[in-house]
Write a structure and sequence with these properties.
about 240 residues, alpha/beta, two-stranded antiparallel ribbon, about 20% strand, globular
């Protein structure tokens, strides 16, 4: 209870201060504070996230914390998104990525284009808002029927977002500078079964603090996913 009260006071206090900053400048202010805080707490946050995340950088972990504070405080802002993709967003598709700290910005990118994805995530009550807006997104908790629910949403025009945690069950192993990892094969088998196009997704910050959304069409193959994952992991901001 004490932690909830502390968090509530923190988010409301920050929200009150930020509302005095013009909307178009708010994200720039966040970047400034992330630059200041990353050398202090970034590595600690990264180590804590490493248990489940396939790859995570100190700066992006600090950015995620800042975004959660703003989202819970109801703060809106303009997001200077950088999109690196050879294709346009598709509705009948699955976007699959590692559990990147700032993956929520993909939802903002989709919303800005009139598309509302559905997310498979373990704790829907956390980060339930699309960052920079007051819009809640649809979430499905992992369960034996989660992918079937996801299939219905996809066929209704809502692309799926699946962020893969480090899991040893029915998985393909790999090694990176972040340690040993395991990628579950379930979502790839699901995409093959229903012939749903699959796209690799990475969201990371560039040197200016702007969220970079990387999208690549891939086969429903965990090894191809891992190849892209390792390529983007090497570009994570430290």
């Amino acid at each position: 209870m004490a932690r909830r009260i502390t968090w509530w006071l923190l988010t409301r206090s920050v929200a009150l201060v930020v509302t005095f900053i013009p909307k178009r400048h708010r994200f720039r202010v966040v970047v400034f504070f992330c630059n200041v805080l990353t050398p202090i707490i970034g590595e600690r946050l990264r180590r804590r996230a490493r248990r489940n995340a396939l790859c995570s950088g100190p700066y992006d972990e600090v950015m995620r914390l800042a975004m959660r504070i703003l989202a819970d405080g109801g703060v809106t802002f303009d997001a200077p998104l950088v999109v690196d993709s050879p294709v346009a967003l598709e509705r009948r598709a699955i976007f699959v990525g590692g559990h990147y700290p700032i993956a929520n910005f993909f939802l903002r990118h989709a919303l800005d284009h009139g598309i509302e994805p559905v997310v498979v995530k373990a704790f829907p009550e956390i980060d339930r808002f699309i960052w920079g807006t007051r819009t809640e997104f649809e979430a499905i908790e992992p369960s034996p029927t989660a992918l079937l629910k996801l299939q219905r949403h996809i066929e209704a025009g809502h692309p799926g977002l699946v962020l893969i945690d480090n899991s040893r069950s029915a998985s393909v192993a790999f090694h990176s500078e972040y340690g040993d990892g395991h990628v579950s094969t379930r979502v790839f088998e699901f995409a093959t079964r229903f012939a749903i196009p699959m796209f690799f997704l990475c969201v990371r910050s560039d040197d200016q603090g702007r969220p970079v959304i990387v999208i690549r069409p891939i086969a429903a193959d965990p090894n191809e996913f891992i190849t892209h994952l390792l390529e983007q992991a090497a570009l994570l901001r430290r």
